[in-house]
Amino acid sequence: MAAEGEEDPSKLSVAELKKQLFWLGAGVPAGGVEKKDLIEALIEARVEHKKKLEREAEAAKKEKERLEAEAREKEWKPPPGLKPKPWQCGLNEEADKKDVIDLHLLSEDELRQRISFAGGKIPEGKVGKFYL
Fold first, then answer.
1. pLDDT tens digit string along 62-87?
2. Contacts of 45 by beta carbon, 8 Å cutoff, 6+ apart
3. What is the rounded distance in angstroms from the CA atom of residue 63 to the CA atom of residue 128?
4. Is residue 93 very low, low, confident or very high in pLDDT (cuts 50, 70, 90)?
């Protein structure tokens, strides 16, 4: 009669039956209450509680799926036809590699001057060298 992990209601005391009904959120039946009425109420409350947990789990699963779909929609996608370039694109020449290394060795002020001279825009405020 009892599910796995649950005690058989017929073996419980009246006080224990009432306590379990309380913890399941069910009320004690009205009127002249006998032990068999409490047992029936507890069995019904356990079934309702199990259904409620299943509904909540299903709702949580749907909400998780909705949030994942929303995150996928917000994910950046390249425009059609745009193919990513390898990270070393254009660095096949030794001179290009040397220029990149030289830029890394510049001070922040020198780097700002070169960017300005080349017509680039320097962001407002305090910006670190690696952002430039």
1. 999 999 999 888 887 767 776 766 66
2. 20, 21, 24, 25, 26
3. 40
4. low
Show the tokens assigned to 120. Answer: 């680039």
Query: Nearest 5°: phi and psi at 4?
Result: -60, 130
* Token reading at 2: 């009892």
Secondary structure of residue 87 in the 3-state scheme = coil
Tokens of 59: 């709702």
Structure tokens at 38: 């409490």
pLDDT computed for residue 102 by the predictor: 77
d(CA 112, CA 35): 85
Q: Find, among 32, 37, 30, the residue nearest to 9 by Cα.
A: 37
Q: What is the largest CA-CA distance in the chain?
A: 97
Cα 99 to Cα 4, 52, 79, 110: the distances in Å are: 72, 66, 30, 14
CB–CB of 22/10 below 8 Å?
no
Instruction: Using the predicted structure, report yes or no on whether residue 89 has a pLDDT greater than 70.
Output: no
Integer Cα distance of 56 and 60 in angstroms? 6
